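Hey L., structure's done. Input below.
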Amino acid sequence: MRNTDKQRQSGCPVAFGLDTFGDRWSLLVIRELMFNGKSTYGEFLEMEEGISTNILADRLKHLEAEGILEKEQDPENRRSYRYRLTKKGRDLAPVMIEIIAWSGRHDKRPFALRAMVEKVARNRVQVEREARSVG
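Output:
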């Protein structure tokens, strides 16, 4: 069960952030929306990390309830939805960029998003501007 404002255990801002967006799968969904242009349930299922359908459905519902993303019916396929970041979700751009930069400094294994790490290192301001414009 997820915490709501009434159930929060502490007034700690770190705890609030973790309750709102801080699990692995939620951050990966945000990554896909923010940096990879994905917006549908099916596209999220194709993530390299291999999210299961029940976890994805739960995270999308949670992120929507927290105001991080919103969904709208796909005009081309009335049976499916498209997701997009809200302003609150786009405000996570500096957090996501810092995670990318931190990982680039500390994870020396080869990984697929090395180009993104290098892009952040070259021009963090531009990457943040682009990430905040997604929506």
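The mean pLDDT is 88. Strands lie at 69-73, 81-85.

-- N.
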